[in-house]
Amino acid sequence: FGIAADENFVITTTNRKEITEDNFSELVQDGVTLYLLQSVDQMLLSATKERIDFLPHYDTLVKSGMYEYYASEGQNPLPFALAELIDNSLSATSRNTGIRSIQIQLLFDDSHGKPAVAVIDNGRGMTSKQLNNWAVYRLSKFTRQGDFESDHSGYVRPLPVPRSLNSDISYFGVGGKQAVFFVGQSARMISKPAESQDVHELVLSKEDF
User: Fold this and answer.
1) All residues at 6 or more sequence positions from 148 whose CB lies less than 8 Å from its CB, including other chains
2) Which of 103, 163, 169, 173 could form a disulfide with 141 if both were Cys (CB 3.0 to 4.6 A apart)?
């Protein structure tokens, strides 16, 4: 890599976790993307890309069709899809100490190439691994572990009584992806973790699939 003998450097994950002798076997696995930096918090000089590969979660088989069942009881399913997208923002802003800002924009011009629905919030943001995890279809946000652990770990689902703003809509982690592809043909997630300078972007599209 052309590193001088007297030059200091660190190797980190895209989540900015430094690779050490103690955590090497845990963090360095086949296919993982690593950064070679002068310091853990060094500003990246250019955008990086990370490929996401995964197998469908078993819930794809055992809970398939639940969303369609609830959305097809003679009702317009579009509100269900929008509710799933808004739920991500409810979850992201649930721990805000200040104002919770969630904007829903319907864009009918060509600013994004095609008409689009944009949901924007001032939540805590997602790390690269959390964004990777969001892409995994049917992976429950209550069962993720390690780097993929959800803020809802240890969560006990409340009794089925009327409630709101509790981020309990997308219980099986299916809604976001299914809602996106019900509304349109692609999704772009842009997120900046509150404690990091990095901005992460994920693009999913039917065309790519």
Assistant:
1) 129, 130, 132, 133, 139
2) 173
Token code pair at residue 129:
């691994």
Question: What are residue 88's phi and psi, to 5 degrees?
Answer: -60, -40
How large is the average pLDDT for residues 78-96?
Answer: 83
| CA–CA dist 209, 197 (Å, integer) | 30
Q: Which domain holds residue 192?
A: 58-146+160-205
Identity of the residue numbered 101: S
The reply to whether 27 and 116 lie within a common domain is: no
Contacts of 95 (CB under 8 A, 6+ apart): 124, 151
The string of DSSP codes covering 17-47 is: PBP-TTTHHHH--TT--EEEESSTTPPPSS-
* pLDDT classification of 206: cutoffs 50, 70, 90: confident
Question: Could you tell me what percent of the chain has a pLDDT over 90?
Answer: 27
H or E segment at 107?
strand 102-107
In eight-state DSSP terms, residue 153 is T
- Same domain as 99, residue 67: yes
Q: Which residues contact 180 (CB under 8 A, 6 or more apart)?
A: 85, 186, 187, 204
49/79 same-domain check: no
SS3 59: helix
Bridge partners, residue 22, by sequence: none
The total number of structural domains that make up the chain: 2
Question: Distance from CA of residue 8 to its chain's centroid?
Answer: 33
Q: Report the C-alpha gap between 183 and 116 in whole angstroms.
A: 9
